[in-house]
Amino acid sequence: GGGVMEFTVLGPLEATVEGTVVALGGLKARTLLALLVMHRNTVVSTDRLAAALWGDEAPADALGGLRTYVSRLRRALGADGRLAFVGSGYRLALADDELDAARFEALLAEARQSSAVHDHDEAIAVLDAALALWRGDVLDGLDLVTLDLQAEAARLSELRVSASELRAQALLAAGRPDDAVAGLELLVHRHPEREHLTLLLMDALAVGGRRADALAAYQRLRRHLVDELGVEPSHAVQLAQHRLLTEAPAAPALTGSGGSTGPTGSIGSTGSASNGASEHAVNLPRRMTRFVGRAD
User: Coil, strand or helix: which one is 92?
Assistant: First the structure.
């Protein structure tokens, strides 16, 4: 029974029925719903549900208490048939398109297919729709440890990073390095230890003619790795930095290098007052991209 239902877990838990947000009640009611939603179409045992609600301080009649919460939830959702008692627990029936996390994963899969056939504009549009579903951290405001959902939350968060990274690669391939940079700067800020993200950012900056900023990104990564982990950047990243330093911005491209002058194959000069200097392509990003792809 019940009408069109939607649940969101990519941010605070929310339920809507026929477009109207459902008042879910307090922390225990939301905890119960979160477990049932994250394990949709699977029976969650009454023991596990009780443990998530009360921990070691379960009341004498925990089962009765649980039943009370379930019946309130059924009333709030107006969905008697969807939330069923089966054997030793409860199961919430949910279709994939009723859960934002499932929709996100489906869109990401679709974008990966578009990317694979070099339909970059389509990939970007689909990834924008996928990333727009995120409104915060997974189940923001609920205790993931108590729910034993840290692993699933981490998996979804990783997919969010993958989607953002794929979007940057698609923007770069579509000849939009400046748009790629904006998203990458945010990603690198959130994950300063991930070298392949900085490598992609250096690539995007270089393609956009921002050599000095690309070198600055390298220095930030190196500082972070040395200070936090006591290691130097990987060979691939050092090589990218070396190329940025040695291939002088105003030097003409080497003859026989394929004469690449397209947006993805060359960078213009940075910091030069003369416009003419930008004609001299430096054959950098094409080589770097190879390393970027390898980090997937």
Answer: strand
Q: What is the C-alpha separation between 221 and 188, in angstroms, rounded?
A: 9
With contact defined as beta carbons under 8 Å apart, do 22 and 31 qualify? no
Report pTM.
Answer: 0.80
Report the sign of the C-alpha dihedral through residues 67, 68, 69, 71, in that order.
positive
Residue 85: helix, strand or coil by DSSP?
strand
220-274 confidence digits (pLDDT tens): 999 999 999 999 999 999 999 999 999 755 433 333 333 333 343 333 333 333 3
* 92, β-bridge pairs: 83
Q: How many CA atoms lie within 13 A of 75 on its CB side?
A: 9
70: its two tokens = 């379930």
How far is residue 64's CA from residue 141's CA, in Å, rounded to a whole number? 26
How far apart, in whole angstroms, are the C-alpha atoms of residue 72 and residue 69? 5
Alpha-carbon distance 161 to 140, whole Å? 17
Asked if 184 contacts 168 with a C-beta cutoff of 8 angstroms, the reply is: yes
